[in-house]
Amino acid sequence: MKIRKFLLVFSILAVMFSLTACSEEKEKPFDYDETEIVIQTMDYFEQYNKVKDEYKDYYMTDGTDFEQSAVKGIDQAVNNDKVGEFESFETPVSYYQTGGPDALANIDYTIENADDYVMVTVINHAANRDVEITIKYVENPDYYIELDRNLAGINPDDYRAQFEQMAAYYGMTTEELMDVFFAQYGVTNLDDFIKKDAQYQLGLYPYTPEEMVVSAVYSKKELMGQAGMNTLLGMGTVFVVLIFISFIISLFKYLPKLFDRKSKKNKEDEGDDKPVSIPAPIPSLVPAGNENLAGDEELVAVITAAIYAYEAANGNTSSKDRLVVRSIKRAR
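Request: output the structure for the sequence above.
Response:
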């Protein structure tokens, strides 16, 4: 009884721990800003969505893996899924132009963190149906090298002097103007603002896109219809193959007859080609040579009877006592 209780408590705890582990959100595999990476995803889509036809072949043959997946995915959504005209995101890159954190207020998106990559999915409301645009991002090691190199040549005093000139032009204090820019860039101090600005000038990010997937969003009814059609096609194919196999098996009963005909024909062909055997000659009753075999009583009796029958046939009757065989020799 105690063992059963122990197993029950252990099972409950195991389920609780597993649910807790599933509910925990994974940490970021690398540093990124949520608003920034979503805007970057939309920018990448807009960039390859507006590629002219004459450049598509270049991307498909000489482009990177990401460029090929982007062009191929968009083309498949347009031509195969018939999604219609895409919604225009019209998303600039910087926070200053997008209005800061509120830039994603009307954007449907999800972010999924993995061990070594981040998946960002944005919904595009196309003319005929919604489209999911998913980009896989991995860490960009060159970002930190290039950013440090760029920051080494920047003087913070130059930035402060520019803020002072702009503040005097707009009739604001330098601190008030800096707070506006800091809020739009999502930072709280001048050093972080300079770092963000240098990042945008370089066009570098802590991450780099590896693959883009563009897929049409189907309703449950459409998915069930497709599943049913696939099931019917699959089962139909199986039944057709089984019927064909049954037909092949039914033909097996004719194989013995076919082989018998071939066997008989082969035997007849072999009989025609077989040499005719010549029977061995019957041994002569009269042995070869000139020796006198009158002493052989059986041979004398046979020859005597033959001579007597021959003479009787010719009308020459003679007594058996008067017919005497004295010598038997082979005629030449």
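DSSP finds twelve helices and four strands in the chain.
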